[in-house]
Design brief:
2 copies of one chain form a homodimer.
Chain A: E1 2-3, H1 30-39, E2 41-45, E3 50-52, E4 60-66, E5 68-74, E6 80-87, E7 91-92, H2 94-99, E8 106-109, E9 113-119, H3 120-129, H4 131-157, H5 160-175, H6 190-197, H7 201-213, E10 217-220, E11 223-226, H8 229-236
Antiparallel strand pairs in A: 1-2, 2-9, 3-8, 4-7, 4-9, 5-6, 5-8, 10-11
The structure holds a DNA duplex.
Chain lengths: 240, 240
DNA sequence: GCAGACCAATGACTTTTATCATATTACTAA
DNA sequence: TTAGTAATATGATAAAAGTCATTGGTCTGC
């Protein structure tokens, strides 16, 4: 976890951040951006490292600059349920902070990830004085709620096969392809995919093999290539 | 659907509303409360009537004064998934409105329900000018998101038996008991309970019979009495 | 009160999915 | 390199849950 906060280094300033057009936080008014810039702490988390743990108290929010992060609950029996996948421009940790709860999920880097930390007080102060940012945050929360509700319905009503196909397409939507235009641009273990789908690891492995047999995907270690997206979408039985 | 908006009738004024201490909307500043009071439209929906339908455009938000409402998605195969149960003081319809989407779920009265409708423009204007109300709305959204994420995890990881027990306790938390202190204060069909749990109607019926055999509940038509809440909680295997 | 519709209950059966066991392959560290 | 560990793959089996079919009950409107 390397601290890379050099306030005068242009590369770490919010005003010049690569994510300044995508992240909600960067829609704050200029005065607040300046303040955020001076108070934030930037860190690099190596693959597998934890940004925060389920059950601990939030001290602020995290803005992902680059990299990939998974957000996951630990079920009662110790099984992980992946709730969200995050990338550059995404903000995490606001849910618990706004509710006044402890974190209800853990955030773990899926690859080396650069993150800016904004302290709690600053974040809430900005929200309280910048109505339009508050409105954006509400939109973000609403979208997240909507997505989660849809996942809930699908989990309740769709068979594993459809959910896996849907999840592969979701991963593609989130992280896109590599330069070759077919390889999913993230390395997830079969277990992690299973924890995203909400099924057993073996079921995921079996179905991935079927998808391969049916020429929808190609498998090469942890690399997953989508070679027939249409067919995969049909398998997912999407209509929304 | 009877219109009961008599602006000068004290019984329908926000300032004197029974829910004025429980509902988020009533935490708006006084000036906005006055405006809400003059612009709102109050209606009574009879049991089974629809407040709004999945797929239609939101024109405002609904504040429940009294009664009970279910919020449900329609799955691709036409199966209903109940997302939320609502009661007096709850606000619905804000999710779609904030996201700028159409409604992603339908709201149906579970019994005769009195509702105030606040037009879209007023609602968004108030949110944009009343930062503390906006903050409360964010809290509300965060809580809702949290609950939905927990449901998702349980749906993915817990067997139907545990989820049904959990759902019965959730209904009790939401609507409480009747005067006798044991009968759930809402009438839901077995199918609706199944759609809340995320399972088949027959499975719900079967398990309810088991719960009865094991002296956890008593069944009397649609009335469900919880006679051993401890045992039910153990069956639900709750730890959070 | 009665017919018709709807809902609840239950048995029989099927399908889906999880679990367990065991290879096989890939990855890691000495 | 090589041993050792972890991840993937696949078969066999078990358990869970869904579907279908039938019956009896309850409610509703005529």
């Amino acid at each position: 976890m390397t601290n890379v906060n050099h306030t005068h280094d242009v590369s770490t300033m919010c005003q010049y951040c690569e994510q300044r057009f995508t992240s909600v936080l960067c829609r704050a008014k200029h005065e607040f951006l300046d303040e955020m810039n001076s108070q934030k702490v930037c860190n690099i988390y190596k693959k597998g490292q934890t940004l925060f743990n389920e059950g601990s108290h939030p001290f602020g929010v995290y803005c992902i600059n680059s990299g990939k992060v998974k957000l996951a609950h630990l079920g009662d029996d110790g099984k992980e349920q992946i709730i969200r996948l995050l990338k550059g421009g995404d903000v995490i940790g606001y849910r618990a902070l706004l509710s006044g709860d402890r974190y209800s999920a853990s955030a773990v880097a899926l690859e080396d990830t650069q993150v800016c930390f904004i302290p709690k007080e600053l974040f809430t102060n900005i929200l309280k004085s910048d109505a339009s940012l508050a409105f954006e945050m509400m939109k973000l929360l609403s979208d997240e709620l909507h997505k989660t509700e849809m996942k809930l319905t699908h989990l309740a009503q769709k068979p594993v096969r459809e959910r896996l196909a849907e999840t592969l397409l979701f991963i593609k939507e989130t992280y896109g392809f590599e330069e070759d235009g077919i390889t999913l641009n993230v390395r997830l273990s079969r277990e992690e995919i299973a924890n995203l789908v909400g099924t057993a690891t073996e079921s995921t492995i079996r179905l991935l093999s079927e998808f391969k047999r049916d020429n929808m995907v190609e498998l090469d270690g942890k690399k997953i290539k989508i070679i027939n997206q249409k067919k995969l979408a049909r398998t997912a039985n999407l209509q929304d």
